Each structure stands twice: as structure tokens, then as C-alpha cells.
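dumping this here before i forget
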Amino acid sequence: MFAIQRVFTALCCASLVASCSGAVDGGPDSGITNLGAPSSSISSSTTVRPVSPMEVRGAAGGTARYALNWYASPMGEDMMVFVHFVRDGVIQFGDDYWPEQGTSQWSGAVVHERDFAIPDYASGQYDIFVGLYQTHAPWDRVSMSSEGPAWQDDQQRYWVGTLSVGEGGGEEPTNPPVDPPSGDGPAGAAPGSYGAMTFHDEFNGSSVDYSVWRKQMWWVPEHDLDTHRVEDGVVKMWSAKHSDGSWEFNNVDLNTDGTFAQRYGWFEIEAKLPPGPGQWPSFWLYAHNDATRPEIDIMEAYSCLGGDWCDGNRNPNDYTGTLWMGDEGGGAEQISQRRATEVLGGLGALSDDFHRYGAHWEPDGVTFFFDGRPLGDKIWTDRFNQEMYVVLGVGPFHEPLWDTPSGIEWSYQVNYVRVWADQ
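structure:
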């Protein structure tokens, strides 16, 4: 479900080190100073534009990762980057660093993604502010623009998100292993061919856990229409007509953007696809850190699209697995697509029963699975190498059929989402 949407993001990151000298002291034990001074004399058309607020998590004394980018124009000189972790208006710790590519050469999307160390004394929540400053007197900061959730404070710093620090205990992986549910590993995986389970949601509660799942993709405004709920141990999702009663629909795309992402491994759901024509259920992985916007569509079904993809009762009986890669111009390259019935033969009505849809993503390619059966050989490619988050979505085609159904009785039902590390 490739997002044909051009969005420039804004990001900077680095490992934390002590800063040297500057104008305003940081907080107790910070080991840094607030270097650089607000100024109106240095400005740039560079934009700080995060697509969503960062929500970084880690343990005191451990490590974490955060990623932002700038949409930049070349500057008159090379500037230093600062990252401040602030509580109650006071810098508690932070980072100043030279970007690998000098700011005099910045142009377009400039992306940095790195791990950083969290001090032993850190605890609780911090606001993350970023910016640029001169490395010579008068140490002026650069005035830039900000869009999206970013905003500028009175010290010419740009808020981009938060860091939440738990108790210490040494290094903590970005996605620590979780207690697995009962049952076997990913369908189609040989014993010992997969690692620890890193994420799962069995939807056994009374509602969706919104500390894990976002309701919409980052470019879609949230709405208050009833589009999903948890019942009988499954999450049910359906498209809803606009509140103005027009023949338009709101999709639902539950996703883990900012809460869980992983590079490589096994990804699987057990799901029953929605009945009826014009429905577009999906299970996919996505990243939007830069213009490539990689996308692994593990399952997409297009019931009755062009009179195809459905049975005589107009229920879905086929689906695809697809790899996409974006480009600087906002377009998309379809690297490969596998249609299930062309490989496996007839599947029956996919809205009648639950089936397991999965993918094994490796550094050199991706293999799709249906109930443990591969959709052909591995698709060989080494272009997918970013951490990606999970998306569960449903909506109508871009042009809904006249009788595309809406409502919970026509829902896409997911019994679980499970992710394992690679072995």
C-alpha cells in the first residue's frame, strides 16, 4: 500500500558526549553547557520537519536510538549540531557534534540515524530539542523554519520529541525480547531458523492498546469515526463513510510508528479478510526516515478489482506480496510482486477462515508465506536495510465500488501480530 505522498522529514542524532564551553550552564550533573546564543543575524531556509514526534525509550546507563532529518539548503559555513535533553526548562544532558557532511554542503533530505548512550543518572521523561550553531565567536545559533509537530522555543531550539528513561541495568536493545505466547514459531520456519520473539499482540484485552498502536498513518489526520474494536480475542477493522454522509470512506491503519520497528526477521499475522467487493485489507512494513520510503507489503487483497480477485459471491480469493522502494522525486518503484494463486493455486474464500500471512525478511531478500507455504522462491534484493514498523490497514480502493460495504459486519479481523528476530 505505497504512500504516493511526498513528505520531507527533519532529523538529527548522535551519541552523547560532553560539550565543551558555552554561554548558559546545563542542569546538575549534566556535564554540558548550553552553547550558542539565539540570533536573528544567521538564518537558513533549512526546515526542521519531523513527520511525527519522536518517542525514544531507553534505560539509564544503556543505549537507545533516535532518528530525525533536516530538509536543508546549503549554508554559508559549516555549523555544529546540538541535541539537548531538557526537563523543566533546564538542560540535563545533551550532545554537540560535527555532522559527517558539513552544513555548507547540505541539500535536500539530510539523514542521520545513530545509537546514543544514556547517562547512569538519567530517569523519567525529557524533551528533545535540536539546533545548529557557529563554532566561533559570537557562537550564534541558526534561525530555521519548523513544520509539523516541531516548534521553536525562545532559545532558538527546535522541539522534536521526548526521551523516556527507565531504571538502569546496562545496555538495552531497541526491541527487547518479549514473553512469547503458547504455540509454535512462524509458519514455514524450520525449527531453530528464527530467533527470540520481539513483539506480539494477541488482542485479548477489551480494547486496542494505544500505547503500542497509532490509529492512522503519519500523513493522515485522525478522525473520531468508529473504525475498529477488539472483540472475542481479535481486532476488527472496517472502513467508515465520512461523517458528512458523502460517498467517501475513512481508512483505518493501525501502526507501530514510534513504538516498535525492526530490521530483518519473521513477521506474521493470523487474519480473516473482510467479505464483500471493493475491500482493500493489508499487512505491511514501512519506514519514512528518508526519500526511499521502503515498503514490504506482506499481504494486500483487492476483492473484485476490475472484476478479478474475488469469487462468485464477490468475496476475496487471492492476494499479493509486494516490495516497493521510493525515490527522490516522490515516485515508487515496484521491485517485485507475487500473486498467491499464481504460485499456490486456488485458496478459497479468504473471508471464510483465518489464515497465516507472513514474511521472512533477510539482508539479501524477502520470502512471503501463506499458511507456511512460500509464495515462490526468495525475492533477492539487498535494498531493504532500514528498521521498519508494522501496519494493519483496511479501506476501499481509491475509487470505491458502488456497493463497497462499510461497518463492523464487513470487518477485517486479525487474531494476532507476532514478530521474531532473525537467527
